[in-house]
Write a structure and sequence with these properties.
seven-stranded antiparallel β-sheet, Jelly Rolls, four-stranded antiparallel β-sheet, 9 helices, alpha+beta, 344 residues
């Protein structure tokens, strides 16, 4: 489905600064404040409030039973996976132009939108121990990146993100849980770890590697802030010890020219059957740019390169093929082909 008509952006374009680009490469993550407008974040907050209260539901997700107390309702949900496949609101945030503006600068120009998660994290709810996202969502080549949007203020007390700067240079450690075959097992001396994501650092042996860095950074965020982080960087969060929620909307993306042998985690068979390494790109949405690989259309019609290529499509100054040629001074430059026969 390609939409007809002339489209214009509804959001002011966000341009990443050079220092931010360098910071992402140096640290493995980038915190951009106020990227998403307050009224938009408020819509997400209201939706989660209505889910907890039983006023609205998401297809396939049961509402809290009517007999539950208010306190029990507040901890009924912990996280919801892939809401963008059932909810227009979630698809809209997955494809939010200002979020994708940043992704275009960091991993683009071609961006494939893969996954969404809605975290409720009410008082008392658990965090997630040290892990690497590329273990769970493999891309080939590995260009995975997450975008963590704060719905509530996030601080140390209610379980904000903690990042380990510099750990993006680490390989993906295979977990000997036997669930998947992921990890950089081709490396001669890489050792399997145990219980990635478990909050107990004694059980989660990835913690031994992460803590060797000697420095974690807490990423305290305000509603509308977005934290971008690469798939290799070690990160975690702690239990919500406050009386306030720490909700977040998290999306994952990769360069649209990477193969994605992944659809939706938790399905052991998808890693074990004969087609485990087949592409699943056709199930994911082309958010920006172009690709030679298959891709999906947005289910709810939100604008992106998949259905509005003239607005968010290929970024070239013209359509002529170019080759590296020597100029009159002997320097190599890009030269457009004058004769179409040269394109073959």
């Amino acid at each position: 489905m390609v939409l007809a008509g002339n489209f214009t952006r509804e959001h002011e374009q966000y341009q990443v600064r050079v220092d931010d680009y360098k910071a992402f490469r140096r640290d493995g993550f980038l915190h951009i404040k106020g990227l998403v407008a307050p009224d938009e974040v408020a819509e997400l907050a209201q939706f989660t409030d209505d889910m907890i209260a039983g006023k609205t539901t998401m297809p396939g997700i049961p509402a809290p039973p009517a007999h539950l107390s208010e306190a029990e309702r507040r901890v009924y949900y912990e996280r919801i996976h892939m809401p963008h496949r059932a909810l227009e609101l979630a698809e809209r945030f997955l494809l939010h132009p200002r979020i994708v503006d940043v992704l275009e600068a960091l991993i683009g120009p071609d961006v494939l939108a893969l996954q969404t998660m809605l975290f409720f994290k009410q008082p008392g709810q658990a965090g997630q121990g040290f892990h690497q996202d590329s273990y769970y969502i493999p891309t080939q080549p590995d260009t995975l990146i997450g975008a963590w949007l704060a719905i509530d203020p996030a601080d140390e007390e209610n379980g904000c993100l903690w990042m380990t700067p510099g750990s993006q240079h680490e390989p993906i450690y295979p977990d000997c849980d036997g669930v998947t075959q992921q990890g950089d097992t081709i490396l001669s001396d890489i050792e399997s770890i145990k219980s990635a994501s478990h909050p107990d650092v004694e059980r989660n042996t990835l913690a031994r590697i992460a803590l060797q860095y000697g420095k974690e950074v807490k990423v305290e965020a305000e509603p509308g802030d977005v934290v971008f982080f690469g798939g290799h960087v070690f990160h975690r969060s702690h239990q919500n010890m406050s009386q306030h929620s720490r909700r977040a909307f998290v999306s994952h993306y990769c360069n649209a020219r990477s193969r994605v042998p992944w659809d939706h985690g938790g399905n052991r068979a998808q890693y074990e059957d004969a087609e485990a390494n087949a592409m699943r790109n056709d199930l994911h949405i082309l958010a920006r740019g172009a690709t030679h690989l298959p891709y999906a259309q947005p289910k709810f019609g939100n604008l992106c390169a998949a259905n509005a290529p003239e607005l968010y499509g290929e970024r070239f100054d013209d359509n002529r093929v170019k080759s590296m040629m020597g100029d009159e001074f002997g320097f190599m430059v890009l030269v457009p082909h004058e004769d179409v026969d040269h394109d073959h």
